[in-house]
Amino acid sequence: MSAEDFDFCDAVIYNQSEKIAERSNSRHIKKYKKLEAKVSNTKILCNGDTVKNLSSKELDESSISVLAKGMNFAPTPLNIPTESIIGSVEECLRRNKIDRLTSETIRQDVSVLIRKAKPIKSNITKKEMNSLKKLSADKDIIILPADKGNCTVVLDTDDYHSKITNLLNDSSTYKQVSYDPTARVLRKVRQKLAEYGVAMGSPVAPIIADIWMQYFEMKALETSPIKPVIWKRYVDDTFCILNKNDVDTFLNHLNSVHSKIQFTMEIEENNTLAFLDVKVIKNQDGTLGHTVYRKNTHTDRYLHAASHHHPANFNSVVSALINRAHAICDQNHLQDELERVDAALIKNGYSLKQRSWKPKTKPTQDIQNENEKRAFLPYRKGVSEGIGRILSNYGIKSIFKPPAKIRQILRSPKDKIPLQNPGVYSVPCSCGSEYIGETKRSISTRLNEHIKAIQKNEVTKSAICEHLAYNTDHFIRFDQAKSISTERFYVPRLKSKNQNNVPSDVISFACTEAYSQQQQLMQSQQEPSSELQAPTTSTQNTNRYNLRARKENKKA
What we know:
Oligomer: single chain
Shape: extended
Strand content: 5-15%
Strand order of the largest sheet: 1-3-2
Number of helices: 20
Radius of gyration: 32 Å
């Protein structure tokens, strides 16, 4: 073999070994990242960064661990929310006006899916669940999310009440009233907004505001004795570059243009300045760099990957962070930002596959179609996805709602105003019978309508008024009215009434014997239906007192 042939063979062998080594290193790196992701699933962010215990009580390890998961963390439900799923599906069929044959097919498919559902493993330990229950029952402490940074704060209840009391005692800001001023204040706000040509809640309000700011901007810059080198504005936030000696003069000029538009000012520190969520950096050569801006209180805590949410929610977290990095950062800071995002996602339990999101070159806007059919379903892993696929075959888009989050499980610091939510309610009568009704507005609003109907003797507007019309010696205990369940949608409210032993077309004021006879009559006339049954509805007003029940009551 000649020297040239030897050198050629040696080069080929060397190049082949380099390729093998490169593939081997890449394979080991992937294995390491997968192992790192599995380990991170059992670890949460540093508890000292995400949980601040300012109370006098010492929290055990399991309590800190469950709070470190975040207030938006949803524990796995112990049971399948069958009633909620059925009510949501029936509400979808009713709202979207699905024909009877298609509805029966959907009911059968959903019923089969629910029956085949199996229990799933909990995403928190028994100790953490017990600690969560203890924290919720402990009235000596209050657990709140921090205003900024997504941190969880634990306070003594007395300290919290003391701070709130000090704020409310400021007579220059607050005053005690004997009525609920919400409606009056809302009316005044609408009047004020109407004076400027924008109705409250109008979709054109942002456009009108931007038009006004454009006019203000043009007038301010034309009349200013000082011209900034750069002037950029987004709605009411501005970024400008001008001489340091002219800063105060320019600010005073802006505030003198219109008495209702007043500006505040921030000046660069250490050659950096935050504008919206962009951190602008002044380089040594005089050019400007830009990267993502985070406040000092930021904890890098996002929705944890172990939370019982639909996978689309986790994809949204990853895509939002990566797309933001590519949209904001320049080439000198992009890689550092992507590495920080990847590290944050690892700490929040995201796997390598979840983190491997490729940014879209041209993000598409999700334009909502008003005529699009939608279903709002409670999410339960292994069940809700299948129901979503079933409904998608009929052109229905499913939107999934996670189960109760830690924020909802813990005790709320706010006092609950009674009967302020829609749902099913009951009102007792002095005769021992009880009225059960449902409303999509606040229960208190509906109760006030009952009271007005009684005062005006309008029996066609209130079943309670009709009951009193036939029983003048009875007394309605509105002071003992209570909420049975809180439901936003119509069919779930009817399901809730059925759970309280009240047929959907009989709003009960009947005595026990008459009600029992009415129930037997309805059961004998009821036709067999599919496995997934929707609550029966009546063509009559569901808030009317049932005539047959009243006749049976008189006979009794």
